[in-house]
Design brief:
single chain, 220 residues, alpha+beta, two-stranded antiparallel sheet, DNA-binding
Length: 220
DNA sequence: ACATGGATTCGCT
DNA sequence: GCGAATCCATGTT
């Protein structure tokens, strides 16, 4: 469901993201994030996500209402929501749910499986990132590695040629990863979100999802 | 106009 | 486990 054909691959379409944000967040690990750049096509397997909900989720930017930077969250699904944090990083989210039901999925970690040198070059632009074999472990590093910055805010990833997501069954991972299995099954761990201890009644919601035993998870 | 603090990351203790 | 780096959205004066 929720897919269209693009060049033989199966791109996630708006219907995929229009579902409940928690369902989408659980479904995204194992899918492939694609970033077409001048230097090449960066491909990453999504490892970890978090769901952010409506005005009742005290950790969600939507809690402030339909205004300011989070206005996008109230609009149609499939748009990218990029915002800066700590003056240092920019975090990438995908708007989910029907119009009027604000929510978004935060992309927290990926395994870069193609054009790793391009991703490394992107990371090198920040003096706050240490470059090692984990290129996109954590939402700040993920955005930087994939070259996603504020100019991508509002981009429709169901249309864009520069940024989109392919279904987890659409790529033959034997060509892409070392030992990690795109087409094989995996267990998803559900746990609490990171960095939101200020959000009293919401901080214990099990809205963080990651692939069990995967080395590219940002934090256990 | 001013003060506050964060959906982070790294390095040092 | 804690603090620094560094900017802007948000809330208060």
């Amino acid at each position: 469901m929720g897919t269209i054909k693009t060049d033989g691959d199966t791109r996630l379409a708006r219907e995929f993201f229009e579902r409940d944000v928690v369902t989408v967040a659980r479904d995204l690990p194992g899918c492939f994030l694609i970033r077409q750049t001048e230097k090449g096509k960066i491909v990453g397997k999504i490892i970890e996500t978090e769901a952010y909900g409506d005005t009742t989720d005290l950790a969600s930017h939507a809690r402030f209402g339909e205004k300011g930077r989070s206005k996008l969250m109230f609009g149609p699904a499939g748009m990218l929501y990029v915002y800066s944090i700590y003056g240092i990083f920019e975090l990438s989210n995908i708007i989910c749910g029907k119009v009027g039901h604000p929510s978004a999925v935060l992309l927290r970690a990926a395994e870069v499986v193609q054009e790793t040198e391009v991703a490394k070059a992107n990371l090198s632009r920040s003096k706050f990132v240490k470059i090692n074999d984990k290129l996109a472990t954590g939402p700040g590093k993920l955005s930087l590695a994939f070259g996603i910055a504020r100019e991508f805010n509002g981009v429709n990833i169901t249309n864009s040629e520069l940024l989109y997501i392919l279904d987890k069954r659409s790529l033959d991972s034997s060509k892409l990863t070392r030992g990690d299995k795109g087409r094989e099954s995996f267990d998803i761990i559900e746990t609490t979100r990171i960095g939101i201890n200020y959000a009293k009644e919401s901080k214990d919601l099990p809205w963080r999802f990651y692939i069990k035993d995967n080395p590219y998870v940002s934090k256990k």
